[in-house]
Amino acid sequence: MRILAIPGSPRKNSSNKAILQFTRTLFPSDSTFILYEGLADLPHFNPDLDGGQVEDSVAQLRHELKIADAVIICTPEYAYGVPGSLKNALDWIVSSGEFMKKPTSVISASPSFMGGDKAFASLTLTLTVMDAHLVEGSSLMIGSVAQKLSATGVVTDSDTITALKQVVKNLTQAALAQV
Prior knowledge:
Helices cover about 35% and strands about 15% of the residues. It has helices at about 15-25, 55-65, 85-95, 115-130, 160-179, and strands at about 1-5, 30-35, 70-75, 105-110, 135, 140.
């Protein structure tokens, strides 16, 4: 099984990236886990450029999505919404359709108590429009995220670990059911 993990922030030490790196350890050992780190390399979306030949960074993202058996996205919330870099990446996928029927998990993680609920809602809506298969029981909002990670980015909160295990279990089952 091939999992594509997309952090919603291009920051080097993003808590969202740390959560995805932690979830890597929860997937079956025979899984291939790809952490996508190309958000910052994508050009600004322009429908005029989304025709024939697209830039290599866009083609690479589309390829990774196409060959993935499942996708897990972990995003922060910026100004009550999805970060622009993540939204830009999704805009490049709308017309090409790689998310169609793809088992997908959405996680938001935020310093706020609300856990990035507005980014979570926005991202879920966008993926629904793109016809992603949002797997029941594989979504999670993590509030006060800094208190749930060690200084090295390891998830230390037992409730969050339990919830992440459930997310991974449900996403894995959905991906295997489609193979």
